[in-house]
Amino acid sequence: MALWRYWTVPGAVGPCTVWEMRIRNMAYEIVKHDQEMMRKVNKANILNLIREKKPVSRSELARITGMSPTSVGRIVTELIELGLIKETELAFSRVVGRKALLLDTEPNSVYVVCAQVDEDISRVGIVDFDGTIICERTCICDAHSMGWDEFTDKVCGEIEKIIAEADFDKSRIIGLGIGVPGLVDTANGIVLSSPQLRWENIRLAKYMEGRLGYKTTIDNVIKAKALAENTYGSDRDAKRVVFVHFGTGVGSALITDNRIYRGVTNSAGEIGHTTINPNGRLCDCGRRGCLQTYITERALLQEARTIRNISGIDEIFEAALKGEGWAVSILDNLHTYISIAICNIICMYNPNTVIIGGKMVKQPPDIESIIKAKVDRQIWAQFQGSYEIKCSSLGEHAGLLGMAVLLVNKYIDIEL
Ligand SMILES: [Zn+2]
């Protein structure tokens, strides 16, 4: 029996073996993928530069990016035809030595209706093309006492109200984006598992589309927040950024070169369910000793209520600010676990920046330096000086903004 079979593949010079064919096909796929990726990256770069430098000329864009004037012109024409950017006044351009038309964004060109849902407070808003939230509402929806359909109907009601109340061109809505805590099958619009919401296998996108009539995209809310921080936040230039959220749950998301790292099943970054103590506290995921059982609001309240009868975590923050020992001790413990989480993330991803957000790191005012000092003490010496730790600059708005970025990128076909 012949060990080698001979094939002729398109573009190949003469016959080749099975392995040669595989390698050639692989090379062809890589080139095709790279060209497609380059096209998206170039378009995204031009758009981001217009957003940052506006008003700006085509020649200035070509000078900054190093792209040819023809390539810049082609992308600009496409964006003008989509109505996303516009030509404004003539201004003298040093690059071309005469007056040139400048380019600016058109904030009212498209709108995204966004929602970020959580186990206690959900948020809905309308975001324009420039990333401005033109209208926003919060609603108290208790996921633990409501069924998923009752919960979702309440959020839909808030979305209908905000669309009706806000003054904007409704025909320019390009879709609905919903950020959800937990594991999300974005391609099929399914919430696979959300321990915080206590949802399993919910076809959320299809339900929302049927209820509200807008094309719906759902994603993990932490990934959306990370993308927003990387697009609109204080650390836009960093190549490798990890956003870590400490709220009703704990999660993280890595962004490399403006791209979300998703993992095989879009589940990368679920650091809250990494095990700290195999015999520890019971977690919402059904296992014991997960990191988030030591960091979340619920964990803190449980611990505090063994000492005092308090109604919310703000009482712990206030008591700690007054120097009351029990509260200082609880917060010190919390900050130690937060620092352990960040040290682990730095060792795993070696990022430029770790951005921290969520209600557990809102207080005290010097939280950034407290956490940084603890991380610097705990981290392996080899990593010291390689990272920055910053508090989120977008706060509670990050989820809405991130979903808007995802939908706009999809609309323009620059989703990486
Ligand atoms: Zn868990």
Please describe what this structure looks like.
The protein has a 5-stranded mixed sheet, with helices on both faces. The chain starts with 17 loop residues before the first helix and ends with a helix. With 416 residues, it is an alpha/beta fold. The relative contact order is 0.10. It folds into 3 domains: 18-105, Winged helix-like DNA-binding domain superfamily/Winged helix DNA-binding domain (Arc Repressor Mutant, subunit A, Orthogonal Bundle), CATH 1.10.10.10; 111-225 and 399-412, Nucleotidyltransferase, domain 5 (2-Layer Sandwich), CATH 3.30.420; 236-393, Nucleotidyltransferase, domain 5 (2-Layer Sandwich), CATH 3.30.420.40. A hairpin with a 3-residue loop joins strand 12 (240-246) and strand 13. The chain is built from 11 helices and 16 strands. The chain binds zinc ion (ZN).
Q: Helicity, in percent?
A: 25-40%
Mean pLDDT: 89
CATH architectural name of the largest domain = 2-Layer Sandwich
Q: Major sheet: order of its strands?
A: 6-5-4-7-11
Bound molecules: zinc ion
Secondary-structure element pattern, one letter each: HEHHEEEEEHEEEEHEHEEEHHHEHEH
How many individual domains? Answer: 3
Task: Give the N-terminus to C-terminus distance in angstroms.
Answer: 46 Å
Can you tell me the CATH topology of the largest domain?
Answer: Nucleotidyltransferase, domain 5
Oligomeric nature of the chains:
single chain
Query: How many strand units?
Result: 16
CATH superfamily of the largest domain: ATPase, nucleotide binding domain
Return the structural class: alpha/beta
The percentage of residues in β strands lies in 15-25%
Count of alpha/pi helices? 11
Unreliable stretches covering 5 or more consecutive residues = 1-9
Radius of gyration: 25 Å
Principal-axis shape equals: globular
CATH class category name of the largest domain: Alpha Beta
| Biggest sheet details | 5 strands, mixed
